[in-house]
Amino acid sequence: MISKIRKIHINIPYTLAFVITLIVVSNLFSWALNHDYICIITGKSMNPTIQCHGLCFVNHYYSDIKRGDIVIVDKETEPKNLIKRVTGVPGDHVKFSYGDYYLNDEKNPDIYSEGVPYSFGPHSDYYIEDDMYFVMGDNRIISYDSRAFGPVRKDEIIGKVVFFID
After folding, report:
1. Active site annotation includes 143
2. What is the DSSP letter of 154?
3. Has 84 been annotated as catalytic?
4. Are 135 and 85 in contact (CB under 8 A)?
5. Over the stretch 17-75, which tens digit does the pLDDT of each residue have?
């Protein structure tokens, strides 16, 4: 009985291109991770929007910050950076009164809170000054945010989240 020997044909140029591409992509990913262009989320303050261990891609060269943007905040009092949503911009009046949230003196329904009280006390009032921003985590009940430490300076915001992967 004669056995057939199969000849395996390897296309060396395509294989080499694939290996080089794989090396370049892994090095770029490693570089981006080490330079905070990619952040791995370790907390639950942005649930349900961004889950713990999700990946965020960050733009450090942003030009403007709008209400609703998700940002990375470097608070010098904290051991690690915080990820939060901007809820108040310069000129805004942010107020918490007996569990309700008011933006510019209008009661503001919020899709992130789902009936969770906002304030840590009966009443809080903030007028957001120039180059300051009010930030909160989407998981309002556990988030450590501007309700606790006040508005953040623009220079404490190190980047805007461009997109994320859960």
Report:
1. no
2. G
3. yes
4. yes
5. 888 888 877 766 665 555 557 778 888 888 888 888 888 888 888 889 999 999 999 98
